[in-house]
């Protein structure tokens, strides 16, 4: 089967969405499918809307000879007109990680984004969703869809931990070792996490921040200033972006993964942390509840509520038996979760069923 994939800036991004696309392409190619990747430069939203009249984008899309065209929904501002002008029967499938209009921001801005996104969603034939929550948000805009839920796998890093190690780690003396993993952008909630931690005694916790600071440099500078304002510099390590091996080592030494994001369509980082026996502190907004069971494999807190974070951290820091139990439960949930291979197989079967039948021989 010949497939195309349209993405912004290639497949090397650090977010969970890029990781999903990267794993999907690799898995499809391993199964013998041809996958051509079309890259559109990601710019400011309004400038990407101009891609709809770009001859270069039109030429790149026209040059594709594929059975099914996949599009990362993140690219929606660039593709509306091109999708509407297609004159062939090639099915177009949107891979939806989450809708931009679901992200926390001013209501008037999301009204604008919702209108643009709805126009795009109406131009595609089918959908691959990363969660049931994502499916529901799309269908709330456009009605019932042809699509599948194919959640991310979490098995690209070998955790290399056991139940015994998880329990022993939880009972080690010293502060609660917390890990934040995510691109340093406001939606990921690092500022809220720092505010919540600052409300706890300084000797009760440490925080390691892993994530790319270059996507939103102003937010990264804001975080640096906030660390000083809150007086928590000695308890916080900002590690930046880490390779897989170093990230695995950091997670293996941690006690708790904390990413109180303002919105996640799924939250692959929670799943990855759970593989290392780390309960997840996540937000109630979006699809995190499909990954994290509140009170069992982690803690769900309302978005933008530092005091709820402080309460959750304090509870786990002082009750190490509960921390151990939640760590083991998280590890079990990770083990039962579908693998990346399962995800790729599901998408491959779905797209194969969509492709148009070959023309009959004369």
Automatic annotation (TrEMBL):
Gene3D superfamilies: Glycogen Phosphorylase B. InterPro entries: Glyco_trans_1 (IPR001296), Glycosyltransferase_grp1 (IPR050194). One of its GO terms (molecular function) is glycosyltransferase activity. Its EC number is 2.4.-.-. Pfam families: Glycos_transf_1. SUPFAM superfamilies: UDP-Glycosyltransferase/glycogen phosphorylase. Keywords: Glycosyltransferase, Transferase. The keyword Nucleus does not apply. This is Glycosyltransferase family 4 protein. It comes from Haloarchaeobius amylolyticus. The lineage of its organism: Archaea, Methanobacteriati, Methanobacteriota, Stenosarchaea group, Halobacteria.
């Amino acid at each position: 089967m010949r497939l195309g994939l349209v993405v912004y800036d290639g497949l090397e991004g650090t977010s969970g969405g890029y990781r999903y696309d990267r794993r999907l392409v690799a898995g499809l190619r391993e199964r013998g499918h041809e996958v051509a990747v079309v890259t559109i430069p990601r710019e400011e939203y309004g400038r990407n809307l101009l891609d709809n009249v770009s001859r270069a984008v039109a030429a790149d899309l026209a040059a594709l000879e594929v059975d099914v065209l996949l599009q990362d929904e993140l690219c929606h501002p660039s593709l509306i007109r091109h999708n509407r002008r297609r004159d062939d029967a090639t099915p177009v499938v949107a891979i939806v990680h989450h809708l931009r209009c679901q992200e926390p921001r001013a209501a008037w801005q999301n009204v604008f984004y919702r209108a643009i996104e709805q126009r795009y969603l109406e131009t595609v034939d089918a959908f691959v969703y990363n969660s049931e929550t994502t499916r529901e948000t799309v269908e709330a805009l456009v009605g019932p869809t042809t699509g599948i839920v194919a959640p991310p796998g979490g098995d690209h890093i070998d955790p290399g931990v056991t139940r015994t190690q998880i329990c022993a780690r939880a009972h080690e003396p010293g502060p609660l070792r917390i890990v934040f993993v995510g691109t340093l952008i406001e939606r990921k909630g690092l500022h809220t996490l720092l505010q919540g931690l600052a409300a706890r005694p300084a000797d009760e916790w440490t925080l390691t921040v892993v994530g790319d600071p270059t996507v939103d440099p102003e937010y990264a500078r804001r975080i640096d200033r906030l660390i000083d304002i809150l007086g928590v510099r000695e308890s916080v390590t900002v590690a930046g972006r880490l390779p897989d091996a170093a990230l695995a080592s950091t997670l293996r030494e941690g006690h708790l993964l904390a990413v109180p994001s303002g919105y996640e369509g799924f939250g692959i980082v929670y799943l990855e942390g759970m593989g290392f026996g780390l309960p997840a502190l996540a937000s109630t907004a979006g699809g995190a509840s499909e990954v994290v069971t509140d009170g069992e494999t982690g803690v769900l807190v309302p978005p933008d509520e530092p005091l709820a974070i402080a309460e959750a951290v304090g509870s786990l820091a002082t009750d190490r038996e509960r921390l151990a139990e939640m760590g083991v439960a998280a590890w079990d949930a990770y083990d039962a979760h579908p693998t990346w291979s399962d995800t790729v197989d599901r998408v491959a079967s779905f797209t194969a069923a969509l492709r148009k039948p070959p023309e009959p021989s004369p």
